[in-house]
Amino acid sequence: MAYMLKVGTELILEADHRDEIEKYKAKIEDFNGNEIYISYPINLKTNKTAFMKTGIQMIASFVDQESNAFSFKTKVIDRIKNRIPLIVLSFPGDAHLIKVQRRQFVRIETSIDVALQMSDSDVQFTAITEDFSAGGCAIIIPNKVKVKQGETANIHIVLPSHTGENIYLHTKCEVVRIFEKNNIHGASLKFTNLNHHQERQLIRFCFEKQLEYRKREMPN
């Protein structure tokens, strides 16, 4: 039995179609040994129900109730008519799940728009991240803006999503380090007041980004 998987768990599915990677989401309706039964997937780009041919191979990913992220290889093995139409996916078993590193160690090099309001000086500015994780980020500090180590701030984060609609998060952060690199002035920030929903959104964003990198490294 697929112990790690639960009925109702959302799967993110990635299929490589020629030069483009299509992403879908679907919920697990049931599972039986090495088979997973899912609702018909929704294409994250078009937001439309997708028809999947038998034999198509994909990478599936999910986040469990403890906010741990996993991925595994799968393929469509059947389609059945039940209470609702279902797609049957292969499941290699818990032993073949790839566990993604916990969020405090995962840093993704990506540019994300953020806006900060410093608590001590009341200085406000916008910046771009140099890297990002669900626990914090490194930002490029604009010219003439002064930021001190140990300062706290309110931070507003704009996460791009596959649906084309941005996700906006508001939380608090602390400046844990000031750095200079290639004549660029930067700061490392630690998120300090995330609620559970925000945390899961950040984990999901970082996990999907990391999955893109891992997929390129995985053998066919």
TrEMBL record:
> What Pfam families does the entry give?
PilZ, PilZNR
Q: Which Gene3D superfamilies match?
A: Electron Transport, Fmn-binding Protein, Chain A, predicted glycosyltransferase like domains
Q: Which GO terms describe its molecular function?
A: cyclic-di-GMP binding
Q: Which ranges carry the Type III secretion system flagellar brake protein YcgR PilZN domain?
A: 6-92
Q: Quick check: keyword Cell inner membrane in the entry?
A: no
- The residue ranges of the PilZ domain are 101-208
InterPro entries assigned to the protein according to its UniProt record, in alphabetical order: PilZ_domain, Split_barrel_FMN-bd, T3SS_YcgR_PilZN
Q: Which UniProt keywords apply?
A: Bacterial flagellum, c-di-GMP, Cell projection, Cilium, Flagellum, Nucleotide-binding
Give the highest taxon in the source lineage: Bacteria
**Protein name listed in UniProt:** Flagellar brake domain-containing protein
- Please give the organism: Lederbergia citrea
